[in-house]
């Protein structure tokens, strides 16, 4: 079984796997439209994490993990808790295209996608509003800023040829806000 990750799974799968491949799926765009009140946020201040939006001409880069034997049940149980129960994601089968030049056919992979029917679904907002929400959110897995920056780093280092305008626009908006926060905190310490 192959499992496709396009958010925190690209750097922290949390389950044992046999192999991993960087690549993409077609027909979906990655969006910071899913609320998170557990891993990267709280009930009071939900974080923003990514989900996939059906988008015919788009492709989303990520990592596919191959799980075999006893790894299958353990990884699916873990992901069903992490994504489906806590995160409210549905599962779909998608065609994964490995980045490797000698890859043959696409691989069928399982992917978790939050839908607008999900109670934590936040939907669209401006890049600045999403960045502002990310800056103030933190959960049991860490700060929401870390989530955004690790995902941007993954894209930059493992998929340099790929574009993800939404992701990089939010990163840019976050970086433009952070110096103001740093200056404000420094000013408060001096008084």
TrEMBL record:
GO cellular component: cytosol; Golgi apparatus
Catalytic activity line of the entry: glutathione = L-cysteinylglycine + 5-oxo-L-proline
MF annotations from Gene Ontology: gamma-glutamylcyclotransferase activity; glutathione specific gamma-glutamylcyclotransferase activity; transferase activity
UniProt keyword terms in alphabetical order: Apoptosis, Cytoplasm, Golgi apparatus, Lyase, Neurogenesis, Notch signaling pathway, Transferase, Unfolded protein response
Compartments it resides in: Cytoplasm, Cytosol; Golgi apparatus, trans-Golgi network
InterPro entries: ChaC, GGCT-like, GGCT-like_sf
E.C. number(s) listed in UniProt: 4.3.2.7
Family annotation (PANTHER family): CATION TRANSPORT PROTEIN CHAC-RELATED, GLUTATHIONE-SPECIFIC GAMMA-GLUTAMYLCYCLOTRANSFERASE 1
Similarity section: Belongs to the gamma-glutamylcyclotransferase family. ChaC subfamily.
Role of this protein: Catalyzes the cleavage of glutathione into 5-oxo-L-proline and a Cys-Gly dipeptide. Acts specifically on glutathione, but not on other gamma-glutamyl peptides. Glutathione depletion is an important factor for apoptosis initiation and execution. Acts as a pro-apoptotic component of the unfolded protein response pathway by mediating the pro-apoptotic effects of the ATF4-ATF3-DDIT3/CHOP cascade.
Protein name per its UniProtKB record: Gamma-glutamylcyclotransferase
Protein species of origin: Herpetotheres cachinnans (Laughing falcon)
Gene: Chac1
């Amino acid at each position: 079984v192959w499992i496709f990750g396009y958010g925190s799974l690209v750097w922290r799968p949390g389950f044992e796997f046999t192999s991993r491949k960087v690549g993409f799926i077609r027909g979906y765009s990655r969006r910071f439209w899913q609320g998170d009140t557990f891993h990267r946020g709280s009930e009071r201040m939900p974080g923003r994490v990514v989900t996939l939006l059906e988008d015919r001409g788009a492709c989303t880069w990520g990592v596919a993990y191959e799980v075999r034997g006893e790894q299958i049940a353990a990884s699916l149980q873990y992901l069903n808790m992490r994504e489906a129960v806590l995160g409210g994601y549905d599962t779909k089968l998608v065609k994964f295209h490995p980045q490797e030049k000698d890859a043959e056919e696409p691989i069928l992979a399982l992917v978790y996608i939050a839908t607008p029917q999900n109670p934590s679904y936040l939907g669209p907002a401006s890049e600045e509003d999403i960045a502002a929400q990310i800056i103030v959110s933190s959960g049991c897995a860490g700060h929401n800023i870390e989530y955004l920056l690790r995902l941007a780093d993954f894209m930059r280092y493992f998929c340099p040829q790929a574009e993800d305008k939404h992701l990089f626009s939010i990163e840019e908006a976050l970086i433009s806000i952070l110096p103001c926060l740093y200056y404000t905190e420094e000013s408060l310490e001096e008084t």
